[in-house]
Amino acid sequence: MRRRYVKQEPKNGGEPCPPLEEKSGCLEYLTYQGQHCGHEHVPAFITTSQYSKERKRRAVSPLWSSDTEETGYCVEFKTESLSHHCTMENRPYARWMQYIREGYTVCVACQPPAMNTGNHRCSGDGLGADGNKVLRWQAVGNHRCQGTWKKVRQVEQCSCPVVHSFIFT
User: Fold this and answer.
1) How far, in Å, CA of 68 to CA of 19, rounded?
2) CA 165 → CA 14, 36, 38, 54, 81, distances in Å?
3) Contact between residue 125 and residue 110 where contact means Cβ atoms under 8 Å apart
C-alpha cells in the first residue's frame, strides 16, 4: 500500500490529483496446477540496448561469475500500442524512447543481471505467451512511456537495428 498527500490542489483547470491511497497485491499468483503465473501481470521493464555495453563493463554479481554466466537470449515483439509520452521524450539519456513505434518489431535482450537466478528468465519476456496474447511493457526512466506488444518469437541472438533493440532490466 502507498499513500500520497496533496500539498497543493490543482488550479486553472489542472487535472485532479491521482488517488491518495493505492493498494496492490504482491504477485504471488499460482495456477490451479501450482505453477507461478504472476509474471503475466507484470510489465516488461526495458531500456536502450546501449546500456548493455555498460553492464558488460561493470563487475557482475557473484551469482553470475564468469564460470557460470548465462549468455542470455532475445525476444522479438511486435509493438501494438504506446503512450504519447514516449514520442515526446527529449531528455538526452531518454531519447531512445522516441524510436518505439506502433507496428514495429523490436528486439529485447535478456541478460544477467536482469535474469532471475532461479529460472534464468527475465520478467516480462512473455514466457508461455503465444503471438495473440497482448503483453505490457514500460520504459525505465519514464513511467509514462508504456504500451503493449505481442511476442513474435524467442531467439538466441538479437537481429534488430540498434534503434529498435532494447534490454530487460
Assistant:
1) 46
2) 37, 28, 26, 15, 17
3) yes
Computed over every residue of the chain, the mean pLDDT equals 82
d(CA 34, CA 121): 19
Say what the pLDDT of residue 150 is: 95
Does position 125 have pLDDT exceeding 50, yes or no?
yes
Q: What are the φ/ψ torsions at residue 112 (nearest 5 degrees)?
A: -60, 150
DSSP 3-state assignment of 103? coil
User: Measured between alpha carbons, how far is 95 from 159 in angstroms, rounded to an integer?
Assistant: 21
The pLDDT, as a whole number, for residue 108 is: 96
The residue assigned the cell 561493470 is: 58
Q: How many residues does the chain have?
A: 169
Q: Give me the residues paired with residue 81 across strands.
A: 148
